[in-house]
Amino acid sequence: MSQLEEALRRTLAGAAGQAPQAPATLTGTVEARYRRRRNRTRAMLATAAVVAVLGGTAFALKDGTPRAMPAAPPTATLPPAIEKVWPQAIHDLPATLPDGRAFRPYQFIDDRTLLVTPEDRTKLPDAVYAYDVRAGDARKITDLPKETALFPEGLVAGGGRVMWWTVPGNGRGQLWSAPLSGGPARVVAGLPMDDGGVDAMAVAGDRIVFSVQEGGVFTVPLRGGTVKPVKGGADSHLLAWPWIGRPGMASAKGEPMFGTIRNVQTGETDTAFTRPGDESIRCGLEVCAGWTVRGGFTRLRDGSQERPDPCADRPQTVTPGRFCAELVKGSGQALEVLRDRRTGRSAVLGIARSSMLGLVPNMGQRLMHYTVQGRMRLVDLTKIP
Amino acid sequence: MSLGGDQDDEGLTHVDRDPRFAEFVAERGDALLRYGYVLAGNPHDAADLVQEALVKLRASWARVRLKDNPESYARTTMARLHLRAWRRRRREQLAWDPPERAHHDTLPDGDEQRLWHALAGLPRRQRAVIVLRYYEQLTDEEIARVLGVSRGTVRSQAARALAKLRDSVPAESAVPTTRGEAR
């Protein structure tokens, strides 16, 4: 740790000591506000129900009345192991590359080859590798150019190439690409970009499609060329090609994240169902999750199949989309459980809480990874029906 | 401590009135305020963050207490709230008025005062990354999960924040030229 980092620790710890003290009335204040908000939501829901009936529309409440979210006591029964529930989705591998280095997997290039970079907490990765998991052989695809690509991120393969992005600074971002067959990497696009960089990237035919954190969907030829904005995508984000939507992950005005999505090939649009009183709604292509004063919920974009969000109690794992993970206390040890919000199926991942952070399915992530019994386990979410 | 607040007019169940929530607030309220203070940089926003996070925790209390760590839940909620633009709207609802103090004057030496001032100049997200790294001592992977961004974003935000902070304090005051990639 550098001297500056040590100084930061001291400074923050010292400043924390200057924080005001909580007033003795804090609990009462919180309790009162919680009840006011809950009562207001109930009143709004009741009003909405009347409006729906008077208007004779199918709008709003699925069953016409405000209803309390079921209490959903924590289950004491663990679901079956993932090996039994979704055996087709898991791959167990040695925890290191053939040269002994730990690695970070990104995606399967084909049914036996993983896109990986070496993982070392003390230094940045030197290269991108294709790891043949059947043969146990890793082939270098390309070196990561250190002088400009300080923080290569978003590695994705498609169209015979691998690409990633970086924001070297000065308000400009870069997209890099190299042939999967091997060869030097080069910049295929540069454009103004804030520190948030690219929030999603995919390959569509012979073009890279990507969106930036501050909003805007663009394409650029796989081998480089002119960056073109996607029509109508100026304030949107890539969700899952060909779907784009708004607002993105940085939704700040209380609008549902990806509440409105559009298929840029067909023009089809979809607006997620919302109720008065909903908060922090985050949607994926199929499923939305959010909050009310009664707790977290999940439902399909059209409002159907609403149920308590099984993962709502762990905000660090509350991610949009179909899959989430939560800790379940069985008769013995508490274990991490992968939940499918769409089908309601669940499976024990085989690890305790401590090793969980870092594998929770994130936006657009299709491959989970964690270490179990000294081996790297991959869960390919695309293989879960 | 009493639950306080308005009278229960809805026949709340015993579980709904769990006194352990009050105990949690009494025991951990100060710690949450300390965290809120380094996150937000001023006592008003710190109080606001804590209050709002506790309301959310209260709404999910029964499940969070049984299945997870309430403090971790509150802290993650605070970090996420910090990144949102909700504070100004809710400022008027703040239920108590924390005293204004010249906090930087009480930090022990000049370098730390300068660093505290420099932290105030960081964009909100960069500040959050710095606080989660050096106050909460989370790994970059954990920070990425808490803030809902990629690990690369955490690294680049941290690098930029450290570069700015380095520029803000004198060369002789413990400022190296490179950052150890310790995480």
Automatic annotation (TrEMBL), chain A:
<keyword id="KW-0472">Membrane</keyword>
<keyword id="KW-0812">Transmembrane</keyword>
<feature type="transmembrane region" description="Helical">
    <location>
        <begin position="43"/>
        <end position="61"/>
    </location>
</feature>
<protein>
    <submittedName>
        <fullName>Uncharacterized protein</fullName>
    </submittedName>
</protein>
<keyword id="KW-1133">Transmembrane helix</keyword>
From TrEMBL, chain B:
<dbReference type="InterPro" id="IPR014325">
    <property type="entry name" value="RNA_pol_sigma-E_actinobac"/>
</dbReference>
<dbReference type="GO" id="GO:0016987">
    <property type="term" value="F:sigma factor activity"/>
</dbReference>
<dbReference type="InterPro" id="IPR007630">
    <property type="entry name" value="RNA_pol_sigma70_r4"/>
</dbReference>
<dbReference type="InterPro" id="IPR013324">
    <property type="entry name" value="RNA_pol_sigma_r3/r4-like"/>
</dbReference>
<dbReference type="Pfam" id="PF04545">
    <property type="entry name" value="Sigma70_r4"/>
</dbReference>
<keyword id="KW-0731">Sigma factor</keyword>
<dbReference type="InterPro" id="IPR014284">
    <property type="entry name" value="RNA_pol_sigma-70_dom"/>
</dbReference>
<keyword id="KW-0238">DNA-binding</keyword>
<dbReference type="GO" id="GO:0006352">
    <property type="term" value="P:DNA-templated transcription initiation"/>
</dbReference>
<dbReference type="InterPro" id="IPR013325">
    <property type="entry name" value="RNA_pol_sigma_r2"/>
</dbReference>
<dbReference type="InterPro" id="IPR036388">
    <property type="entry name" value="WH-like_DNA-bd_sf"/>
</dbReference>
<feature type="domain" description="RNA polymerase sigma-70 region 4">
    <location>
        <begin position="118"/>
        <end position="166"/>
    </location>
</feature>
<dbReference type="InterPro" id="IPR039425">
    <property type="entry name" value="RNA_pol_sigma-70-like"/>
</dbReference>
<dbReference type="GO" id="GO:0003677">
    <property type="term" value="F:DNA binding"/>
</dbReference>
<keyword id="KW-0805">Transcription regulation</keyword>
<protein>
    <submittedName>
        <fullName>SigE family RNA polymerase sigma factor</fullName>
    </submittedName>
</protein>
<keyword id="KW-0804">Transcription</keyword>
<comment type="similarity">
    <text>Belongs to the sigma-70 factor family. ECF subfamily.</text>
</comment>
<feature type="domain" description="RNA polymerase sigma-70 region 2">
    <location>
        <begin position="28"/>
        <end position="91"/>
    </location>
</feature>
<dbReference type="Pfam" id="PF04542">
    <property type="entry name" value="Sigma70_r2"/>
</dbReference>
<dbReference type="InterPro" id="IPR007627">
    <property type="entry name" value="RNA_pol_sigma70_r2"/>
</dbReference>
